[in-house]
Design brief:
The structure is a single chain. This protein is an alpha+beta fold. The chain has helices spanning 5-8, 44-52, 69-78, 82-87, 101-109, 137-163, 168-180, 184-195, 202-218, 222-235, 239-256, 259-272, 279-292; strands spanning 58-64, 91-97, 117-121, 127-132. Strand 3 (117-121) and strand 4 form a beta hairpin.
Length: 299
């Protein structure tokens, strides 16, 4: 219950073939030779704007702190290598200190826990790849390749959706992965279409509603979240999903600041689902909620 809304309800491409210009003065769309060092942007906004001018350009963000010997070590190991230069052919790199507002925003948004770390993002902040913590040079390089492989799979899903835009399974596959990559707006539009599509399989409609509730909760749109959850309860034939939706309604009340209502809902949940696998979590949350209740005035 206290975990990120993204995860409670939720039940390797070789280097990119796109050749992109990153050296100042290079014609748009021209390739940067593999043995040429990438030109680092001074700010995140500059990196985004440069990436937008490139066909399918992306941003490589290194996150570090001022006092981080491991960051310096990894920089000396990785950045001079030919493998890194090849990896950066379609990306604009930028270095951000975690202590800055921009650095902390990205650190929090993508759930990073330690430095050194890197992200690969589209200009619209869709997550293409990530890695955190110090490691060997080989491990970082493997992470680069693995992230590109996974990104290629996602692009294949997008292509399949374009070829069959009326196929609910193709639309759902894109929406689900966009959600996991932090593309809530991209995911939301697709989930909404699926949830309203009477011809879509019931399972996909129900799962789309679950994702919509998670997105709404994260965006603090509590009425929308409640509507989606209640729709699941009214229509789903999946007992596990219904149980999770019922439990999630307490998150709505917590988000609204209605702790007593949330507590009452959780107690009712335990009565309705006495053998729930989430019982211990619910009991722990109830204890925390009851501790926040204001003391009654003496009569």
């Amino acid at each position: 219950m206290m975990h990120s809304p993204k995860f409670l309800l939720l039940p390797a491409l070789l280097l990119s073939p796109v050749l992109l210009a990153q050296a100042p003065g290079a014609p748009q769309g021209a390739s940067r030779p593999q043995d040429e060092n990438p030109v680092w942007a001074e700010t995140f906004d500059e990196a985004v704007q440069r990436a937008r001018k490139l066909p399918e350009g992306r941003v490589f963000v290194e996150l570090r702190t001022v006092d981080c010997p491991e960051c310096d070590r990894m920089g000396k190991l990785i950045y001079p290598s030919a493998s890194f230069r090849a990896f950066m052919r379609d990306k604009v790199p930028v270095l951000l200190d975690r202590g800055t507002s921009e650095g902390q925003r990205l650190f929090d948004r993508f759930g990073l826990r330690r430095v050194p770390a890197w992200l690969v993002l589209t200009p619209d902040l869709l997550l293409s790849g990530r890695y955190e913590g110090s490691s060997s040079q080989a491990a970082w390089m493997e992470a680069f390749v693995t992230s590109e492989q996974a990104w290629a799979v996602f692009l294949h899903k997008l292509d399949a959706e374009k070829k069959a835009p009326a196929d609910p399974a193709a639309v759902f596959a894109v929406a689900e992965e966009a959600f996991r990559r932090g593309g809530d707006a991209m995911a939301r539009e697709r989930f909404e279409r699926l949830a309203a599509d009477g011809k879509a399989p019931a399972e996909l409609r129900d799962r789309s509603l679950a994702y919509l509730a998670a997105i709404a909760l994260e965006g603090k749109r509590f009425d929308d979240a409640e509507k989606a959850l209640k729709q699941i309860l009214a229509t789903t034939r999946n007992p596990a999903l219904a149980e999770q939706a019922d439990l999630r309604l307490a998150d709505v009340e917590i988000g609204r600041g209605e702790r007593q209502k949330a507590s009452a809902h959780l107690k009712n949940f335990l009565q309705t689902h006495p053998k729930s696998p989430m019982r211990k979590d619910v009991e722990a949350l109830l204890e925390a909620l009851d501790g926040f209740r204001p003391a009654r005035s003496p009569e």
